[in-house]
Specification:
GO molecular function, one term: DNA-binding transcription factor activity
Number of strands: 9
Organism: Rouxiella aceris
Order of helices and strands: HHEHHEEHHEEEHHHEEEHH
Pfam families: HTH_IclR, IclR_C
CATH superfamily of the largest domain: GAF domain
Radius of gyration: 20 Å
Structural class: alpha+beta
Number of helices: 11
CATH architecture of the largest domain: 2-Layer Sandwich
Protein name: IclR family transcriptional regulator
CATH class of the largest domain: Alpha Beta
Keywords: DNA-binding, Transcription, Transcription regulation
Length: 274
Amino acid sequence: MSLKIEQDDISKKEKPLGSQSLFRGLQLIEILGNFPNGCPLAHLAELAQMNKSTVHRLLQGLHSCGYVTPAPSPGSYRLTTKLISIGQKTLSSLNIIHVAAPHLEQLNLITGETVNFSTREEDHVLLIYKLEPTTGMMRTRAYIGQHMPLYCSAMGKIFMAYEREQFAAHYWQTHHEQIQPFTRNTITELDKMYQELAEIRRLKLSLDREEKELGVSCVAAPIFDVHQQVKYTVSISLPTARLEQAGAKVLIDAVQDIAQRISQEIGFVTPQEG
């Protein structure tokens, strides 16, 4: 379902004047990003809503530029690592990664858990840095560059909590078809989300209580910039059983401390009371 939604979003966006082939080629790249092992040409044409001859011609152009290559399965295509190189160059240009990385590594060592660092891109969380756990065997499916919904992730709820007052209602109205219960704990009612966001602002902390995946919990904290705005979040993901075993307070304190340190490095000053 998510793939269809993404394609609907693509078709609804107003494209600026320019080469139609360019936009169609980029559309194919976005679709192929969902098929790491390759996508058959016929299926790709169906998803892109283009005829097979057009898709084949575009794929040949992308192949000649090094962005696409034939997959092991006959008649299928996949992306090349050239896009990874471009993505890494883009991420490395973000000074925030250089500032945050030492702190995130420290959090990884302290907790031993998966550490995530994200920003917001439109109505999604964008994961821009991740460290795998140093203890245990659990590896999350999250990856750098991944988009995640706002409403069912600890990091996403952080961004919602520190948006303008009307944002949650607008989000619910414009994303009602996408808001679904992944688990019995997923918040799908706007009134309950209002309560959740108020608590997040009060505690400067967000929890994913198995809202996206049973057995997996997440603790996130906001990172404030010099303008006291939340542009980034940091979180740890771990099995719920280990969260209970280690003690939630210990892990929460560690995440909030690292978030505060990164905030201070990018110019945040705690407002004076009174």
